[in-house]
Amino acid sequence: MKKLSYKLYFLILILSISCKEQPKETTSPIDEQEQVQAQLDHGKYMVDVLGCTDCHTPKKMTAQGPVHDMDRFLMGFDASQPLPPVPDNVPMGPWVLFAGDLTAAVGPWGTSYAANLTPHETGIGNWSLQQFTKALRDGKYKGLETARPIMPPMPKHYAYLSDEDIEAIFNYLKTIPAKENVVPAYRPPSS
Question: Which InterPro entries match (predicted)?
Fold first, then answer.
């Protein structure tokens, strides 16, 4: 009898615990804001670590040498500045010449200009995350399936960035100041 009452007591205890309404997990607006900020911070970190500014931000000369011109952060080759001509005494060959601010290059692939990565419509302002992903992973111009390759090709290791990294970079870039700057079109070697 005593055994039965313990079993009955134990059964009632289990049933009462299992029938109790479980608290719903909710995220507060503060938690969501913290998650968004953490993603943006990660995106900024990735832009810094991957060296996006090295090619996509014009430089200005200081007493310490060239530095990133943060007033033109990630706007790509400044279309208002002409690309200096390739010197006549430079022989053709397996070389690369960079513009003084490193936002344009001339090499065996032709002449290429660093793209505008700001959220202006002349940059990535109208791009979707899918286009941005395709540009980084597959090296497709403007992230379009049928487009030409990005010139010069982006580093191949970008293809291994995680979806989370790419989304963080994309979302961060959408928060930086938009800069109107229509970068000149790529020129193949024959032009």
Answer: Cyt_c-like_dom, Cyt_c-like_dom_sf, Cytochrome_c-type_DH
Distance CA 46, CA 24 (A): 35
Find out whether 169 and 133 touch, Cβ atoms under 8 Å.
Answer: no
Which residues are registered as beta bridge partners of 98?
105
Cβ(62)–Cβ(70) below 8 Å: no
Domain layout of the chain by residue ranges = 35-173
Strands 59-62 and 110-113: unpaired
Residues with Cβ < 8 Å from 58, sequence gap 6 or more? 68, 69, 72, 75, 77, 78, 81, 101, 103
Q: What is the pLDDT of residues 73-104, one digit of tens each?
A: 999 999 999 888 877 787 767 788 899 899 99
Whether omega before 152 lies within 30 degrees of 0, making that bond cis, reads yes
CB 143 within 8 Å of CB 131? yes
Q: Which residues are CB-neighbours of 79 under 8 A, at least 6 positions away?
A: 181, 182, 183, 184
Whole-structure pTM value: 0.80
Task: List the structure tokens of 146.
Answer: 């049928």
